[in-house]
Design goal:
By secondary structure, the protein is of the alpha+beta class. It has one domain: Calycin beta-barrel core domain (Lipocalin). The chain is built from 2 helices and 10 strands, in the order ααββββββββββ.
């Protein structure tokens, strides 16, 4: 009898865990709305007078969010975020000439959005340098975000984080 009680308790626990995970999974439309809150100009924390800015703007009837990196006033790279039915996609237009496409991961939450590599155009080999992951952490302070990314190349993985502050 005791093994049956343990087995039933385990099944109940697993079913409750699955239900909680399904309920906490981020809705892609809500995730895209959260990303839309980034519209504006951002600078690296502690570098207010730097020649580096990140701009977010909406285009195409607010259906695409464009992230533009600006260095010394010149556009350096773009990442386009948009919905694709039940997916939230990011396409990064890299100065290296390739265009990785990333998709929002199922483990994302509304305050921690993470994208993982799906495929790429103009990438000859997966060992060539390319963006492989991208993420945003939205703290309670809406004027700060943590942007995380990783690049993969034949040398391995290069992970970086950038704390961005909304420009006033």
């Amino acid at each position: 009898m005791k093994p049956l009680v343990i087995f039933l308790s385990l099944i109940l626990t697993l079913s409750m865990t699955t239900e909680v995970n399904a309920n906490t999974r981020v809705n892609v439309a809500e995730a895209f709305d959260e990303m839309k809150s980034l519209v504006g100009l951002w600078h690296k924390e502690g570098a207010e007078s730097s020649n580096f800015l990140v701009s977010f703007e909406l285009i195409a009837n607010n259906s695409v969010l464009v992230e533009t990196w600006l260095r010394k006033g010149k556009k350096h790279s773009f990442t386009m975020y948009h919905l694709d039915n039940e997916k939230l996609m990011a396409t990064h237009y890299c100065p290296q000439g390739n265009q990785p496409r990333l998709v929002l991961t199922e483990s994302s939450t509304i305050n921690n959005l993470n994208f993982s590599f799906l495929d790429a155009t103009n990438l000859v080999d997966l060992s060539d340098s390319h963006q492989h992951s991208l993420g945003f952490e939205f703290p309670i302070d809406l004027n700060k975000i943590l942007r995380k990314e990783s690049y993969i190349s034949e040398k391995g993985e290069d992970v970086s984080e950038l704390l961005l502050v909304r420009r006033k």
